[in-house]
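Fig. S4 source data, part A: sequence.
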Amino acid sequence: MKRCLSTDIHPLKESLKSLTQRILDLYMSNMNKFLILPLSLFLLFPLSSFANEIISYKKIDDTFKKTWDDTYPVEFKKITKKDLLGKGIMVVKNKQKQLEYMYSFQVFIARVSMVDGVKTENEDGKEIIVKLIHNPSDVEKPYRIELGEFSEKYYQGNVVKWIK
């Protein structure tokens, strides 16, 4: 009887072993499909975070100048002051609950006049307050400029933090 049991169990054991092997093979063949997505996300997210790296005040001048030139026809003469509040870059949440990074500048703009169809700049001018806003989630136009007051009170409740 022992012999009969062992022969009866042996085919069952073999079929269980082959079934386990088939499941393992199926899992391994589909494993490539399951690994592609997590690996690609793992590789893409660090690259995208480096692409949207926060630029410090020391290195933002070129970006500010390019954004200004794309936005306004009149050039500014010089940046007279950066970081008006002395706290660094203000991080705020916009209406879509996305993070935006706000830089503050004071720039000098010369008075421009047209004489006989020729643009002339006078020595006198005006200093104005400018905000450079960086929205990393906006793919088409990540930087924009707003003119006017720069105050923490205006963004009350939306200020997330300050980055020095």
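Fig. S4 source data, part B ends here. The beta strands are 78-82, 89-93, 99-115, 118-134, 143-147, 159-163.
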